[in-house]
Structure formats: C-alpha cells, structure tokens
Amino acid sequence: MVWRPTLPSDSRLDVRKTYKLYVGGTFPRSESGRSYVVHDSRGRFLANAAAASRKDARDAVQAARKAFGGWSGATAYNRGQVLYRVAEVMEGRHDQFVEEVAASEGITRPRAQRSVSAAIDRLVWYAGWADKLAQVVGATNPVAGPYFDFSVPEPTGVVAVLAPQKSSLLGLVSVVAPVVVSGNTAVVASSRDRPLPAITLCEVLATSDVPGGVVNMLTGSLADTAPTLASHMDVNAIDLTGAAGDDEHATALEVAAVDNLKRVLRAPASEPDWTQSPGLDRMRRFLEMKTVWHPIGV
Amino acid sequence: MSFEYAPAPESRAVVDLKSSYGLFVDGEFVDGNGHAFKSVSPATEEVLAEISEATEDDVDKAVAAARRAYTRTWSTMPGAERAKYLYRIARIIQERSRELAVLESLDNGKPIRESRDVDIPLVAAYFFYYAGWADKLEYAMPGSAPRGSVPLPLGVAGQVIPWNFPLLMLSWKIAPALAAGNTVVLKPAETTSLTALLFAEICQQADLPPGVVNIVTGAGETGRALVGHPDVDKVAFTGSTEVGKAIGRTVAGTRKSVTLELGGKAANIVFDDAPIDQAVEGIVNGIFFNQGHVCCAGSRLLVQESVYDDVLARLKRRMASLRVGDPLDKNTDVGAINSSEQLSRIRDLSQVGEAEGAERWSPPCELPDRGFWFAPTIFTGVTQAHRIAREEIFGPVLSILTFRTPAEAVEKANNTPYGLSAGVWTDKGSRILWMASQLRAGVVWANTFNRFDPTSPFGGYKESGYGREGGRHGLEAYLAK
Fold first, then answer.
1. Tens digit of pLDDT for each residue in A64-106?
2. CA distance, residue B321 to nearest chain A CA (Å)
3. pLDDT at position A16, please?
4. Residue B435: helix, strand or coil by DSSP?
5. What is the pLDDT of residue B367?
6. B313 and B245 in one domain?
7. Number of domains in chain B
8. CATH number where B271 lies
9. Same structural domain for residues B287 and B379?
C-alpha cells in the first residue's frame, strides 16, 4: 500500500518561508535554537522568527568587524552604487514588502504601499550621499602657518542599531542607511513584534551587491540582544532608537555603552515620524572627523 | 664640548599675585564655602596663593547665574554684539599676554618659551576665531536646520578642564560656547586655577555681562557637582579617560549633550626614507613638549628597523642638549612636572617599564633640589604588551618599538584603545596619505607634530573621547541639532 498525503483539491499547498537571522551574509537559525511566534496586528499567526541570543549578537559583531575594512575602504562611488542597487532590488519586491508591512503594522494596503515606496525613496536619497558627504561635512582648514590642513569624515566602525519597534520597513531603512552609507558596518536588532520586513530586506541585501557582514540582522527581544551590543567592547557606537519609550532600559544601555566610550544616539521619547525628511544628523552621528596636517615648503 | 648658559629668567614682576582667590560668580569674585586649598609652583614648591573651594551650593549659585545670564542677555543678544565681546576679550589677552604667560609658567611649571610662544598666542587666536562665528551661525550646521534658520545654543555649559594647558583649554571651551550663545560655568584643575581667575578679571575688564562666564575652583567634588547639576545642558570635559567614563555614566539618561577629550597613546611613526634630523626634532617635540603632559603626545615611537640605530643615536644626542630647569628661564626646554601626584605616577610607570624588561635611558641631567622634576627618558626594547606601551604616562617618557612594513606600522599604531593622534615621517607623499587614511586617530601629523590651530578640528576616535574642538566642527558641539 502506498501512503498518499491529502492535498486540497483546488490549490497547491504553499511553501512557507522560514524566517532566520542574517549574519555575515548568511541566514543562520539562532544558535540557541529558540524561536518565537510573530502575529499580525490582529493576533493571527504570521510566522516563527528566530529569537537571537547573546551569542548571536556576538557573532554578528564579529561579522560586522570583519566586513568593516572592505566596506569602509571601498570608494564612496562604489558604496553609493551598491546602496542604489539595493533600492532597485527592493522595488522588484514591492508587493511582498507591502503585504508584510500591512500585516505587521495593521495598516491598509494603500498606506503600506506609500510606506514601502517612501522606504525605497529614502534609500535612494541616502545612496546619493555616499560621495557627497565628505564635501559637505569635511573641510580644509586655513591654519596660521605653512601647513596644508584638512578634515575628512571617516566611519566610526561597527555600529549597533536598535531599529524602531513600530515602523517595520520605513523606520528600519531610515536608521540603517545613514549608518552604512558612510562606511560603517551595522548590527541591527529589528523590531521584535514586526520582524518580517526586516528579514525580507536582508534577502534583498543578500542578492544585491552588499558584502556579507555589512548589515547583520537580529530578530527577537531587545532584552536578549541589546545589553550585549551596548557593552560589547568591539562595538564603536549604538543607536538606541528602538528603545524609545522605555527610559529605564535606554539609560541602562547608555551606561553600559560607556565601557568603551561608544558614541550613543539616545532613544527619543517616542518613535519619530519617519516620513519627515531626515537631514544629515543621523549620518553625522556615526562619523569621526580626521584632521591631517602636512607642512608646505619647497 | 659643553656650553654653559647664563641664566636668562623672565621677570615675575609683571604678575600681581594676590594671597588668596575666590570664585567668579555672576561677575563678582566671591569666597567659596569649601576648604581653601593652596596652589604651589611646581618648580619650587613655593605656595603661590590660597584658592577657594566651590561646594555644591556654590556650584548651584554659579549655574543659576549662568542660567539668568543665558535667558536675560546672552542668548537674546544679536550675534554681532556677542562677537564684539569676544573680540574684545581676544584683544585684552593679547595686551596682557606677558602677564598671562608668566603666571601660567609659574603655576603650571611649563617653560616660559612655551607659554609665551605657544599657549597664550593660541588662546588669543581661539577667541579671535570664534568671535567671528557668533554672527554667522546660520552657516555653522549644514544640513541640520531648515534653510536660513539660525541654530540655537544649548543653554548652560558645564566645563571641566585639565592642568596641562590651563588657559589654552579654557579658550577651547569658552570661546565656542560663548560664540554660539551659551553661558558657561567652568572648573579649572585644582593645581592650575590662577590663569582662569585672571581670565575672569579680563571678562570684567571687557564688561562682559555678569553670569556669562563663571569660574568655580576646586577638585573632583566640585567637578562632580557641576557635571551632575540638573540645570546644566551641556557638559564638556578634557582630562583622563577614567573621569571621562564617570561623566558618561553620570549624564546617561539625561538630555545633556556631552563632548569628551580624553587620553591618548599616540604612535609617532618614522620610516626609513624620512629626513632623520627633522624626524628627531619631531620626536623630541612630540614627547618632551610640555614635559609630555599632552594628551596627544607622541609617546610610542615606531621606527622602521633599517634606520633604528641611526634614529636612536641621533635622538640620544639631541636629548643630551635639552635644558631641564627653571620654567621662567627663557632657555629652558623642559620644565617642572605639574604636581607631586603626577610625578609619582610617572616614576611608578617608569619603574614598571624597567621591571618588565625594557631598557631605560636618560641623558646626564642635573635636576633642581626642590620642586617636581623628571628627566627626559626613553625606553628601548619595548613590546606591545608592556604597560609603558599601553598606558598613558603623561610625562616625558618615550617608549620605542620597531616595525618592518607599513602594514605592521599601522597594526601596531592602531593596537590601542585610544585614538587621539598619530605622527608619520616619510618623504613619500602617497605613503603619507595611505598611512593617514589607515590610522584610527582624530589628528594625524605628517612630517610635523603637536601643531594646533583654532581653525583645525581636534579630537579623538575610540576611547580618546568624542566631539571635536576647533574649527566649524568645534561649534557644532555647542549648538542644538
């Protein structure tokens, strides 16, 4: 006798996606083996997402550090092209993003469509900054002596980003793009309850030309990953945006960040309106100005 | 052959020292409520004056005065008027430069040649530079504010400065803060308060509105009260990484914005094609300038192996001609160590260097009997694991290491939690620019060292702190984003 599975007569069984972490350009499960249930805004099951552990956070930092030399050493033109390519590939997945954003955020399809379009446009905007930032924030300095003296912005290094909890794609792109455009590499802790657009974004990154490790994504609870990222001695800066509204947690993370004097972008009182045009501040936060002196003479 | 120099002391007569000094709050000198402490001349241990200690209550009064001045006068005054006050202060500093230089050397122990030719001229230059920004703030923050709007000041700045460049650090803090429209409460280091108090007198002379600048004297407790004060909007600190971290923890969870300029362990890298005599001058200037009390001092010398013997021989010869002694003597190259505490730290770490197996050398050099003195010292045979290669000594002590390839030089130079400055000596332009791009440090001096200018942003990577001082970038730290 042959065993035959029962199939719905009118349609095929869909192949569900396993949502995993994104570390060093690959999609591992959490080393802890843990996952958690992601619901849509009405509480219906959407997926099981990987619950990143402290070890996953440390692995992600290692991957980000490994990628830093290549990414920060790439030409600004190249980084701009790579990020623009990400926008191109996102555009092709527009519908998928709309579906996930609508389900995650509980907004209508037209609103989700606007949000996804804004996220892609935001990335295009930031991509263009790659080879302009140094001209706007750098300087040649007219010192009182026979020296050529100039200041150039350089990336701070490995940046931990606590992504916004509410805006699952537009907010996410708005905090990740300004970090990586200047050559930093990022370890991102996604929204806990709305992680699906983040993982899909990672699939876009993996199939664009972004080198593995430049962006690493941890899904799960901030309570598991954020303290490790804030106290990690090989993380150079941390964006606490995702801790908005939880002052106590944000303060504890800021204190932990002092151990190696991380640059800290504090959590806002509440999540900002991501549709507003961003300005340079987020990029500026994760830059170091380097000043070089050289004598002038014959 | 040896030369004997006749003494060439600068006259102290230009300085009118009082026996005791108070705090400067709301435009007046007032007594502090803490225990008065003594400021001694590190060169002779002579007591120069008694200085009031500001208690928490005194700090509170100073912050209140700064707040009143901020809301009532300074932040609402047209930028062009603020500019004129700062220009006035710059001019008075130039006019009284001799007096300031002598007082600085007396109180700090640095050679008069340095305070006269470097510190005080730069102090005037910083005020002059930032004066001109006060009415041009709409150009100070590209991309931050809506077009054409003037960025706003932060409010009251609490500033804590170190003892190595007392008046110069004051100018780095006060000039940009005032230009941007903030008012300040500044705490000088407890061993070097005198020029800050003379600066307070200059503020009076310039008719600066009361409360715009307040000076509170004292030690760590006073600093803690200032940094932790709830009505301070902005904290600026220059000093040790340890205290910088304590400040970081204090302000965590507040809305205060912070800039920290902390320690360093700079690599000064000499390649085999460098003009060796110039490089040796740069090495000497890098570590023995200001007795090595410089956060950006070139305290780790990295020499390419092929020229190691040559560099070492010429460095020793040059060091033998350094004149250590009376800070007020115009021929002195290296002055006194600022305090007995600092002297013991330098001695301790130097002993650790010997105990860990590095070889110590100093030129024959007669040190005065009284005061705090330490002969210029080098250590050879130093490895990266040695404490003298890792920890900031903040004294005239140089650790010498070697390298073979540019990549090895970069790796060794960057192998430190600090990242304030670095030096590169080579004749090859492409290598300079490559090295400059690879070094994780905020300031890279190529074929020069220890240069400063008000137009030039200065500040660290990594654990050397964050924020920049100098230039347009220095202004950003005092404007609301």
1. 999 999 999 999 999 999 999 999 999 999 999 999 999 999 9
2. 25
3. 83
4. helix
5. 94
6. no
7. 2
8. 3.40.309.10
9. yes
Residues B240 and B334 in one domain: no
CB contact under 8 A, B462 and A250: no
pLDDT reported for residue B143: 74
* Residues of chain A under the 70 pLDDT cut: 1-10
A290 at interface of B, judged by CB pairs closer than 8 A: yes
B6 within some domain: no
Best to test chain A binding among B141, B455, B472 (most A CBs inside 10 Å):
B455
Catalytic status, residue B295: yes
Instruction: Tell me, yes or no, if B417 comes closer than 8 A to chain A by beta carbon.
Output: yes
Do both B274 and B250 map to the same domain? no
Q: Are residues B301 and B399 in the same domain?
A: yes
Q: Which residue in the list B10, B203, B295, B392 is annotated as catalytic?
A: B295
**What Rg, from alpha-carbon coordinates, does chain B have?**
22
Does residue B347 share a domain with residue B256? no
Residue B261 annotated among the catalytic residues of the structure: yes
The complex's ipTM?
A: 0.97
Domain that holds residue B28: 20-262+461-476
CA distance B461 to chain A (A): 7
| Order of all β-strands in the sheet with A237-239 | A215-218, A185-189, A158-162, A237-239, A263-265
Looking at residue A43, the DSSP 8-state letter turns out to be: S
Say which of A250, A259, A288 has its CB closest to residue B461.
Answer: A288
The verdict on a CB contact (< 8 Å) between B142 and A279 is: no
Topology at the third CATH level for domain A35-295: Aldehyde Dehydrogenase; Chain A, domain 1 (3.40.605)
Measured between CB atoms, which of B252, B436, B448 is closest to A251? Answer: B252
Which residue from A251, A263, A284 is facing B253, i.e. has the nearest CB? A251
Q: Are strands B267-270 and B257-261 parallel, antiparallel or unpaired?
A: unpaired
Min Cα distance B143 → chain A (Å) is 5
What is residue B145's predicted lDDT score, i.e. its pLDDT? Answer: 64
**Which residue among the candidates B10, B261, B463, B476 is catalytic per the annotation?**
B261
Distance from CA of A220 to the nearest CA of B (A): 24
In tens digits, chain B (481 residues) has pLDDT values of 556 788 999 999 999 999 999 999 999 999 999 999 999 999 999 999 999 999 999 999 999 999 999 999 999 999 999 999 999 999 999 999 999 999 999 999 999 999 999 999 999 999 999 999 999 999 998 877 666 688 999 999 999 999 999 999 999 999 999 999 999 999 999 999 999 999 999 999 999 999 999 999 999 999 999 999 999 999 999 999 999 999 999 999 999 999 999 999 999 999 999 999 999 999 999 999 999 999 999 999 999 999 999 999 999 999 999 999 999 999 999 999 999 999 999 999 999 999 999 999 999 999 999 999 999 999 999 999 999 999 999 999 999 999 999 999 999 999 999 999 999 999 999 999 999 999 999 999 999 999 999 999 999 999 999 999 999 999 999 999 7
* DSSP structural state of residue A260: G
> How far A290 CA lies from chain B's nearest CA (Å)?
5
What phi and psi, each to the nearest 5 degrees, are found at residue A8?
A: -60, 140
Q: Which residue of B has its CA nearest to A280?
A: B143
User: How many CB atoms are located within 10 Å of the residue A279 CB?
Assistant: 16
> Which CATH number covers residue B185?
3.40.605.10
Q: Residues 111 to 150 of A: which have CB under 8 A from any B CB?
A: 136-137, 139, 141-145, 147, 149
Residue closest to B60 by CA, chosen among B156, B171, B153: B156
**Nearest residue on chain A to B140, judged by CA atoms?**
A137
Q: How many CA atoms lie within 13 A of B422 on its CB side?
A: 32
Chain B residues with CB-CB distance to A151 below 8 A: 456-457, 471, 473
C-alpha distances in Å from residue A10, one per residue of A3, B41, B57: 20, 95, 82
Q: Are B109 and B337 in contact (CB under 8 A)?
A: yes
Distance of CA B16 to the CA centre of its chain: 25
List, in order, residues 6 or more apart from B455 with CB less than 8 Å away: A141, A142, A143, A144, A149, B129, B470, B471
Question: Cβ B248–A258 below 8 Å, yes or no?
Answer: yes
Q: What is the pLDDT of residue A2?
A: 57
Q: Cβ of A261 and B241 within 8 Å?
A: yes
